[in-house]
Amino acid sequence: MPNWLTVIFIVLAAVAVVLVVLYFVGRKLQRRQGEQAQAIENAKQVISMLIIDKKKLKAAESGLPKVAVDSIPKYLRWNKLPIVKARVGARVMNLVADKSVFDALPVGKEVKVEISGIYITGIKSVRGGSIEPTKKQKKAREKEKAKAEKVKTK
Q: Which whole number is the average pLDDT over 119-140?
């Protein structure tokens, strides 16, 4: 067998091994993500709160409890989190919001939100108005409509 065929065979075998490993790791991560989503869904509550401020901050600067900051993986600590400062009852709290919820939260208004621990997962209603989509959300919807029209025409 020629030398170049041996090299190609070894490279293909290595690629196959890597793909098999990635498949099993992906399945494990997908199962873990499903379990976490179920836990969030089970712990969800609807709470009324006044949104004071919202910013994207690093975990160390966010004012979150030390336990929450320590639970963030080290490779994600430099990422900025969508932090919402809100008054819940008589307490002022810092909460982490879902990215889509963060864009839609109005500052200075009372909002009913779905919350799981310190994580805001959804908006139910806004007192004194409706939830208006942001410019980013409008552009994303327009792009989705354009893609859908392209698919229909093909």
A: 74
